[in-house]
User: What shape does this take?
Amino acid sequence: MEIQIKILRQDRPEGEPFWQTFLYETEDREATVASALEELNSRERLTDIDGNPARPVCWECSCLQKKCGACAMLINDFPALACEEKILGHGSTVELKPLQKFPVVRDLAVDRDVMHRNLRQLGVWLSQKADIGRENQEEVFIASQCLQCGCCLEICTSYADGQDFYGMSALVPAARVLLAQGGPGDRRMQEGCERHIYEGCQGFNACEHVCPAGLPVTRLMAHVMQLPKGKLLTDRYEHSIMKTIYE
Amino acid sequence: MEKKLIIIGSGLAGLSAAITAAERGQKSILLSVQPPERAQSVLAEGGLSGELSEEAEALAEHYQDTMKAGGYLAGPESVKELVGAAPAVIRWLQRLGTPFQNDGTELARRQMGGHSRARTVFAGDRTGKAIMAALADEARRYEAAGMIERMSSHHFLQLILRDDQCRGCMVRNWRSGRVYQLTGPVILACGGLSGLFPGWSTGSGQNTGAAAAAVFRQGIVLGNLEFIQYHPTTFQISGKRCLVSEAARGEGGRLFAIRGGARWYFMEELYGPDGNLAPRDLVSRTMEQIRRRPDFRFGGFWLDLTGIRKDAWKNGLAGLHEECMSYLHLNPEHEPVPVEPGIHYFMGGILTDAAHRASKRFLYAAGECACQYHGANRLGGNSMLGAVWGGIRAAETAVMELPEFQQTPEEIEDSPAETAEWEELSIRVRKKIGEILAASLGVIRSEEGMEKGLRELEEWRSRTALSRLEQDEVLLGTAMLRSALARRESRGAHWREDCPEQLEKFQKTTAAFYDGHQIQIQFRPVPGTKEA
Ligand SMILES: Cc1cc2nc3c(=O)[nH]c(=O)nc-3n(C[C@H](O)[C@H](O)[C@H](O)COP(=O)(O)OP(=O)(O)OC[C@H]3O[C@@H](n4cnc5c(N)ncnc54)[C@H](O)[C@@H]3O)c2cc1C
Ligand code: SF4
Ligand code: SF4
Ligand code: FES
Assistant: This one.
């Protein structure tokens, strides 16, 4: 089947976006948007539908099996992983756009550093030795699986640019730390989650619906919010590897 | 100016190195193409191998298993250190909040191939991701404290070498295109070479091998390049090979082939009841030999997982279950899974000593890009252990040696932007190199096949316009083939039908380096042995 892949491209962060369409041929029902992009970029000479030469399409990828979050983009206006979406599932035209909530670097690649900055802002790290009880083991495991792909932020009506409302890509890693710590939480992080996530969230769960890792974000949020408030913890460096070895 | 360590790569090895340096009060730059969440380490499934106590007998067994599986090419001193550090590494990761499965009192362990007992700790079948989340959080703490500077959209381009010393490296920010130089000792933690085999391997395409290729061109010694691990159980998905973790066989999975219309559980028949858990090189080779047998019509290989208990699926193999359903559209609890060997791991890489020093002063390597712990074949779970411990150990050495790293005034001036063009490495070129190498460096090799590979690579190179990075990759590919040709024996993952014996005289490290004109291949004593 012949598919038209329409890509919203941009040469530079401050450049003008423009559409370019490519023809892609496949009968493989398992072919993904990622494999289509790879095939386009493997061509000796890439030309668009009108035969004009085009430079390779810039997009991020790493694992090609839905485990690293690199390839998130808008596929027919829906945030998804390019390596998960089957290209034949979309009819004869597929539209690809970079995620719109982040600054574009080039073509489909965006700058998602804000997610990491917000984790820093919240102080998402352990301030004391972890103490994972049996009852929390599975929940900590689940909360450690966030891909930092940004799909949840893309779909969220409360999330704009990450200045005030941080969204679920911050909540999930914070939940990992709070639950791994055991006992009452780290007050600073708890208050941060309340202020920058809980208070701004409308609770319609669109984020959970799009999350490619299938994370139960609402449950994690409820779990975090239920934790008794802890003390303000100051950093102690007690889990040093060398200390662990020589103790 | 304040001295900083430069760490290339933010997988398990890079993160462990940066955290260790920070613990020692040493600042570092943590540079990678993409942030830690996208590193290949997040794909690791089955677990991390190591004893839980420092009991000497148990450590000795882990040591023996590792050395034996590696065909006695791993450095004995470093392997001793590695298995000895494992209990502490596991405790450390636990304290950082890695949710290793446990029953409230003791960590659960599973059996992986080639291990004489169950000594692999795990978090479901997403162990790598669980550990990476813990390390990334810990690194963030030091980042907030100003000890780690994260640069997660950069390519390493090449080293800056002067007077036999590594003085730093050239890097490019792929977002802005800016090329500049960084001064300081360099720890390479840039992962394996799976990106050199796009479509053929289970790993990440981000690990293009460009870093290893560049340092090779610059004269850094690489070791054991011919040892490529084919994992026996993988299947093709769009654009890559998907791994069926060895944990599946650890939980009771059984390999079979179709012979005369019936199931033949060949590993059990040929190697006894534990045959399914033989080391990976042996399983993959057996499969390849069966495929070539003229006496029956080969009908494919399958993994029978129907005997696995319900709770083992739920607690330990949920990811595999999901992958079988979504990629193969089959339920592995009821139907066998079609499998084939696929490229999975690179035992060879930047040759280091037990302290992780590479062949130039102030250059270190750790993780999958380094060569020392795994010899001719790696055991399941040993690579995550090697990556975490290697990162720690490399950083320890680098921090210790840092006072001797004297910065010159010109270096302190810093960063004259390089004007030379650094073009991107194209996927088309990587595919072509991968195609040639995969065909000639398969599970079973021959002189004829490898010579043909060399010729094809050379012919193709001579009629193709290649960028600098691409030429480096061809040079690295050539060195892999030349290393494999020079080792005229069969050992571990390197199996030659024209030289099927394992020979005493090849119990050596294959050292490959480029002298500026040609590739040199030498057989050197294994580091840490009496001869060395
Ligand atoms: C599917 C799969 C399952 C596995 N399961 C297990 C398991 O169960 N147990 C086990 O022990 N091992 C397992 N392994 C192997 C193990 O995961 C890896 O060997 C290990 O994680 C490697 O870690 P690393 O830190 O060396 O490199 P990686 O995690 O690969 O990280 C490499 C880093 O280097 C960076 N980089 C690469 N090139 C450049 C460049 N040119 N410039 C700048 N940065 C660069 C990347 O961005 C990345 O940050 C598995 C591997 C795969 C593929
Ligand atoms: S529930 Fe709705 S508002 Fe809240 S984070 Fe999810 S998408 Fe955003
Ligand atoms: S919560 Fe889900 S959608 Fe959001 S960043 Fe994590 S993995 Fe992606
Ligand atoms: S490439 Fe990793 S999730 Fe798509």
